[in-house]
């Protein structure tokens, strides 16, 4: 569900049931680094014309982003993907890199609230995990990759 606009960076708030060592685990360190880098980016001088809107999904979509990182960045990996889907129907909607809302919600099972950015382009509203639009370069959902917890044909 999308809620009120975010007017400043969202602080990292720990739930009472989170353990203290969470901040020191791999996902916690990754999230802390992302917060630091996001603050540095937002401190840069503003863009001029023709840029009229800038979305900061790590502010308004922090909850699903954290859920994604805590689910899939828990242990060291042999492969590291760098980049994100900067399109209006990818990370801009969900805070999750490399995916449109359908894949993030249904395939990755990511959850969390998404707030409205402070300045939203009228043709590119943030709908969060309920967004039904897809990036044009993506395959149809029925051609999506297998579910991450289900084995691929012949895999163990």
TrEMBL record:
<protein>
    <submittedName>
        <fullName>SMUG1 glycosylase</fullName>
    </submittedName>
</protein>
<dbReference type="InterPro" id="IPR039134">
    <property type="entry name" value="SMUG1"/>
</dbReference>
<keyword id="KW-0378">Hydrolase</keyword>
<feature type="region of interest" description="Disordered">
    <location>
        <begin position="1"/>
        <end position="25"/>
    </location>
</feature>
<keyword id="KW-0227">DNA damage</keyword>
<feature type="region of interest" description="Disordered">
    <location>
        <begin position="132"/>
        <end position="156"/>
    </location>
</feature>
<dbReference type="GO" id="GO:0000703">
    <property type="term" value="F:oxidized pyrimidine nucleobase lesion DNA N-glycosylase activity"/>
</dbReference>
<dbReference type="GO" id="GO:0006284">
    <property type="term" value="P:base-excision repair"/>
</dbReference>
<dbReference type="InterPro" id="IPR036895">
    <property type="entry name" value="Uracil-DNA_glycosylase-like_sf"/>
</dbReference>
<dbReference type="GO" id="GO:0017065">
    <property type="term" value="F:single-strand selective uracil DNA N-glycosylase activity"/>
</dbReference>
<feature type="compositionally biased region" description="Low complexity">
    <location>
        <begin position="1"/>
        <end position="12"/>
    </location>
</feature>
<dbReference type="GO" id="GO:0003677">
    <property type="term" value="F:DNA binding"/>
</dbReference>
<feature type="compositionally biased region" description="Acidic residues">
    <location>
        <begin position="15"/>
        <end position="25"/>
    </location>
</feature>
<keyword id="KW-0238">DNA-binding</keyword>
<keyword id="KW-0234">DNA repair</keyword>
């Amino acid at each position: 569900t999308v809620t009120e606009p975010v007017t400043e960076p969202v602080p990292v708030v720990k739930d009472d049931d989170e353990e203290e060592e969470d901040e020191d685990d791999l996902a916690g360190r990754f999230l802390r680094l992302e917060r630091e880098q996001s603050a540095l980016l937002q401190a840069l001088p503003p863009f001029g014309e023709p840029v009229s809107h800038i979305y900061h999904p790590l502010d308004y979509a922090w909850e699903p982003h954290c859920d994604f990182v805590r689910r899939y960045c828990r242990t060291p990996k042999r492969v590291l993907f760098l980049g994100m889907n900067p399109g209006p129907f990818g990370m801009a909607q969900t805070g999750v890199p490399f995916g449109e809302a359908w894949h993030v919600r249904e395939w990755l099972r990511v959850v969390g609230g998404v707030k409205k950015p402070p300045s939203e382009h009228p043709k590119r509203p943030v709908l969060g995990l309920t967004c039904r639009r897809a990036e044009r370069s993506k395959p149809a959902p029925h051609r999506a990759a297998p579910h991450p917890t289900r084995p691929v044909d012949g895999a163990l």
